[in-house]
Structures are given as structure tokens and as C-alpha cells.
Write a structure and sequence with these properties.
mainly alpha, two-stranded antiparallel sheet, single chain, 299 residues
Length: 299
């Protein structure tokens, strides 16, 4: 017996333990899986590749090029861009925010049960949160850069980098909103309807084509108010509006905190799930039943 255990523990014997290969960090592996999951979303990829250029091109071709007065609330300046160009910007904002929101909603809604099972198995929840945030950032940056490049094919904005930054801030905001909807809503159709409704109201009230809504103080409470102001300034002026981008990032922070709380609650409920029938002890701690007597005395 001693010889057997000695051979097992021997570092030079046939049972010697092999050196462990360096493992990929958990957060990097989780991020890779999230990116692959986004890439496998065929509908989202089709929307990115086809919907953005189609919508932007149609806005440039259909809407007239006559000047459309538009007031920048942040500076008080009255600008008069071409109607088809300002429509392209509002259309790009609508497309970018909707696509990013749908992508994050689909990932959160479809992967909710899997995330809960991994949390129950002891997988660090911080890695799940970091992977979601990083994948949202990468997807938003890619979609915003692509939309900016599509707009530049039609005309040249004054500040393309600021335009891309404004689209990026709007995209991550709606991506966080998609995480909130995916964590709280129980049906997929509910999330789709909520996302479309919020986006339509948000973009419709801020569109210069809608008229008086652009000068109302109520528009400052809309989720993409900062994005719209910064994007309009980037397209038609030489002024940068970091304050509006900061306001947009505040919207993202608030939506991200809500999504984090919803995710924490779902995984926490899975970790602290009670045993069925409301039993206060686990089955292995139940007291054993007393054995029945071998014979019963006659009365």
C-alpha cells in the first residue's frame, strides 16, 4: 500500500501530475462568448449592414434639400441645415439606438436562465457584468462608426468624430435600456414593443420635421436629447458640446444601474431559492423515522 501511494505521489512516476496550462481569464472567455453571441444574431447583423444605409439613403433622396431652421438649445444658436441632411442624422440616431437596444435585449432575455444557472454553480457574477458592459461598448462603437461612414458618403459633416461620439453615447444608452427590459419583462414581444415605443416617442418629439417639439423644455427629459443636440452641432457647426455628451452619459449611467439591479436581483433569487413546499430545512437534515416495533402486544 505504501508503495502504491508512493508511486501515485511521485513526481517522476507514471502518475505524476502534468503541469497545468495557463487558462484563459474568466472575464476574457465570457467576453468572447458574448461577442460571438452578438455575431450569431443574424437579424441584428442584417439590420446593421442593410437597414442603416437604406434608411440614411432614403432620407437623403426622399426629403427635400430646402433649409430647415433648427435651434440648438445648448447654445441658443439657430441653424438652417438642409432638410434631408438633418433627417439623415435623426434617422441614424433612431437606427443605431434601436439596433443596439434590440441586440442587448435579445442577449439578456435569451441568456437569463443560463446566467442564473452559472451563478448557482458559483460563477463570479462580476465577470458576467463586465462582459455585458464590454460587449455593449464594442458593439456601440462599431455601429456608430459604421453609421457615421454611411452619412459621410452622402455629405461631409463639420465634425465627423463628434458625430460618431454622439451616436455612440445614444447607442450605449439604449443598449442599457435593452438590458433593463430583458431583465424585467417576461415575454419577448413585450420587450420589442417597449423598445420600439420608447424609440419612436424619443426620436419623433425631437425631430425638426415635427415642428414645435424641438424648442420645448420637455424634450430635455428624453433619453437621446444629448445625442441629438451634439449630433446636430457636429453636423452643421464647428462647436463641440461636451456638456450634452455628459448628459447622455448620465442617462447611460442611470439605465446601467437599473439593469445592474435587475440582474443582481434575478441571480440573487436563484442563489437564495428556497426548497419546495416551504420547508425550512434541507432533506438531508430531516430526522429519521422511528422503526416500527417487531410485535404488537395483544390487548
Amino acid at each position: 500500500m505504501n508503495g502504491l501511494f508512493a508511486s501515485v505521489n511521485d513526481t517522476n512516476g507514471p502518475f505524476a501530475s502534468r503541469p497545468h496550462l495557463p487558462k484563459q481569464p474568466q472575464h476574457r472567455a465570457e467576453l468572447t462568448s458574448r461577442v460571438i453571441e452578438h455575431a450569431r444574431n443574424r437579424l441584428a447583423m442584417v439590420l446593421v449592414v442593410l437597414f442603416i444605409p437604406t434608411w440614411v439613403s432614403l432620407a437623403h433622396a426622399v426629403f427635400p434639400s430646402t433649409a430647415l431652421p433648427f435651434k440648438l438649445d445648448a447654445t441658443g444658436e439657430l441653424i438652417a441645415p438642409a432638410g434631408n441632411q438633418i433627417t439623415q442624422i435623426t434617422g441614424a440616431i433612431n437606427a443605431v439606438t434601436l439596433i443596439t437596444g434590440f441586440m442587448m435585449f435579445a442577449v439578456t432575455f435569451n441568456g437569463g436562465r443560463f446566467d442564473r444557472r452559472r451563478a448557482m454553480a458559483g460563477y463570479p457574477r462580476i465577470h458576467l457584468v463586465l462582459a455585458k458592459t464590454t460587449s455593449l461598448t464594442l458593439a456601440s462603437a462599431a455601429i456608430a462608426a459604421y453609421a457615421t461612414a454611411v452619412i459621410r458618403m452622402a455629405w461631409s459633416p463639420h465634425q465627423p468624430v463628434l458625430l460618431a461620439a454622439a451616436l455612440f453615447c445614444g447607442a450605449i444608452t439604449y443598449g442599457a435600456v435593452g438590458v433593463v427590459f430583458g431583465s424585467l419583462l417576461r415575454r419577448e414581444v413585450e420587450g420589442m414593443f417597449a423598445m420600439i415605443t420608447v424609440s419612436l416617442v424619443d426620436a419623433g418629439l425631437q425631430s425638426p420635421l415635427a415642428g414645435g417639439g424641438t424648442g420645448s423644455s420637455a424634450t430635455q427629459l428624453l433619453p437621446t436629447y444629448g445625442t441629438m443636440q451634439a449630433a446636430a452641432a457636429a453636423g452643421f457647426t464647428d462647436q463641440s458640446l461636451p456638456g450634452d455628451l455628459a448628459v447622455q452619459l448620465l442617462w447611460f449611467t442611470g439605465a446601467a444601474l437599473l439593469g445592474l439591479l435587475a440582474f443582481h436581483r434575478r441571480t440573487k433569487d436563484a442563489l437564495t431559492a428556497k426548497s419546495p413546499f416551504g420547508l425550512s430545512w434541507a432533506p438531508r437534515y430531516r430526522q429519521p423515522a422511528r422503526p416500527a416495533p417487531d410485535h404488537v402486544d395483544a390487548p
